[in-house]
Amino acid sequence: MRSRLLSHLIAPITLLASAFSPLSQAAVQSRIASAVDGGSRTPLPGTIMSRARRATDLGAAPADKKLESMSLRFSMTSAQQAGLSQLLADQLNPSSASYHQWLTPEQFGTRFGLSSADIAKVSTWLTSQGLTITRTARSSTFISFSGTVAQVQQAFGTSIHSLSLNGEPHISNVTDPVLPSAIAGVVTSIVGLNDFKAKPHSRARNVSPIDPSQPLYTQTLNGVTSHYISPADFYTIYDENPLLTASTPINGTGVTIAVMGNTDLTSGNVLPDANVAQFRSAAGLPTINLKLQSAIPAGGSDAGVSASDIDEAHLDIEWSSAAAPGATILYVYSSSNIFADSLTYSIDNKVAPIITISYGLCESGWGTAMLSSYNSLLAQANAQGQTVVSSSGDAGAADCDADGLATEGLNVDFPSSSPYVTSAGGTMFSGDVNTPATYWSSSNGTNGGSAQSYIPEQPWNETTSSAGLGFGNGTGGGAGGGGASAFFSKPAWQTGAGVPSDSSRDLPDIALNAAALHDGYLVCSSGDGQGETPCVNGFLSSNGDPNVFGGTSFVAPAFAGILALVEQKTNPTGATTGWLGNVGPTLYGFLNGPTYSSVFHDIISGNNSVPCTQGTPNCPNGGSIGFTAGNTYDQATGLGSFDVNALVTGWSGVKPVGTGVGSGIGTSVSTTALTTTASLCAVSAGTLALNVTVAGTASGPTPTGTIQFFVDNVAVVGGTATLSSGTASYSLVTSSLSSGGHNISAVYSGDGNYAGSKGTLLGPNINASFYPNGPIASVDIVSSSSSGKPDFSFAPATCGATTTVQPGATASGVIFTITPVNGFTGTVSLTATNNDGMAATPSFSVSPVAITTSSGVTTSFVVVASEPTTVANSIRPGLKPSGRRPSAKMPWYAAGSGATLAGLCLLMLPRRRRWVALLAAVISISALTAAGCGSSTSNTGGGGGTTPPAGTTNASKGIYTFTVTAVSGTLVHSAQISYNVP
What we know:
The chain is of the alpha+beta class.
């Protein structure tokens, strides 16, 4: 009787307590009103990756080819997004009842996922199309499935084709899918309609075989001494030894680090940890606690060891475990898509408190739907207490470029640019160049270390003016990624001295050594998992070569290991509430607190600039583009590198920033569109009329608030306007701007209902036929009459059109007029850069052009859609060599980007923030760059394709751009010409 009475009392008490729990929330409401049928259909935009747009189309893909890593990613309602935004802020606020009350995947689904009834309806529809369900998210945020190309095309009304890019075969959807309208309303993206893979941010250094009897770290060969970084060196340089040698070692014991991989470690008779074991042995470290977890969907095929990914897998495992020798390393691997499988599995199953991923793409290479979906996934990780660390990239400030001189302008890497991720950038040691004996011993210690102290650093930059990002024979290399995001606005916690006032998420956050040529890292990755002998005799491969690598791929896993030390120190019991979650507020808490200078190495000289091609985005005059290191925060090295001992021991004493009242991420998403009625080619009027329209994506009131205008990502002084009925206008004074191309944008502040957003200028004459979301445009400023400076305008007959030319044919000439302004006279030289490696022979009818009177002079730019087979990046009279060619130089992550995605629906602004979903709304893909101008009216270039004569190669199907630049002294104007080869 007493027991029954007690149970009756306990039940209501439990319910009452749960009602006031920080984690409690009413069950999510169903959003699909009725059964799904095949009637009304709604397109799902932003699903075609930029690489697919520029690849050679080989026709329909085989109908029976199986696609395995597909998933429908679900969106959130406005109420869910607002709730998540507030929760993420509260979980990081020590004054909140929700502080560190991390969710389980199921709890996340209950609050922010799709209802079980809706999940059932979507599943039923998928199976009715012949597709096989392979995984349903624990968080109710996605459903994974597989099927053949024929089944997928039928279900989603899309076309999937075979493609060739850089000589590699691929498949991809070439049209956006359509979904039953009932489902389209709850779906953000369809993942897995292509097989393009992200690639790792590491650079291998070729080192000649060395004498196995000699030391492997400080190494002298033929009179030349080299220094390679071993774990012992890392411990000395960054002061980790006091933690590792303490009476109770702080070495990561009890903490698990999840390493994201895209390959098996073994395929045959080689032990999974054979290379790792050799690395640990050579470094004098104990046996690693390594666990493997396949993330391959049910019924999916395992591709085994991937030659292009195995080095990355080994270095990530070896260096995360080197930084935290006692931690458990969980290697989560897939075969085809590290984001769709490995990262998704790790977050949806909450496998570890710390996740490291060294793969990424420049922001504009993702496609808006994918970018939105994965950013939502990263938000879920933070809500569950998981810390995600990602490499910032190896192409300096030009992340869309991979080789040679930069042509794609300033860009940053995702997921490193996500505000839910800690961005790990790169440095290189500079203090040891002139006095190496001060910092390095001539011999190695017991565990292979030869470094004697901290070595002063500068931003990692091993590029050269001639080779740029080329990496071979020691003539060039990479640089640490950094800059301002084009998609995400600044989180509340990214504040403090040196942080730019650009309303954008800036990266990196921290940096460590990432050099390859100067003091690269030692790695053991000789075995291929298929019988080849793993590393022997220390870090040597079987043929005597040392494995030496560089890249920000090292920084992400190393920092993940250091965070494992932080967690062990601050959470000795291993409680889930002791997980760190998003560490941004604490990192910038150091910057805003009294211990910054004693914990961080403030890197104040050097840059991450990379050589660029004149006339391409952000590079009007040639030279290089990027960011310079300076006092406190900078976009080359972030907060700098750090003293590991001071960071770990001082962590708990830091006051996090940006987590108080009003620091929530936001409520409903807004979109900002910036337009002008003027032509953007050769603006010389002295002012430019700008129009802004801000719309809310949720039903509700019209957005209110203010607009701040930016030129080249710098706020215009006095450049603000107030919205009225969601619109605003502003007259930008151009007479004070320098001659040449400028990027103009508008940032919406947000209000009580909407998060802020960002838009980049779109002109009325911009042709978006091949860029469905619309291109961005740069304004080509010509000195106005009021300034009195001699200048000239340089513009095609029609600003923004695209020319169609058949393979092998000659396109109609694009007439450019060069018109003097303010009495300009002189010679104007013309060059053209083949941005996308089109097999083409360009020429000018007149070059250079002499301006001797007040009248304009014309020249015709002509492109023949073929070239001699032996010609590769040749220099023709008046022409610059191609910036990249499909077979060799076209960057894997930028192919098809044309320039940069913009429209730029940034999901965070101070005070009214929102991170999650619906990013795609009004985002633009750039077809136009420095001058924002295209060719004259469309033509067919001779009517039909031709069979190429012997020794000639015709242009492949695709969309290509040439940047045409006019130069006279210090005056530079440029325009971009687009060609469609059908």
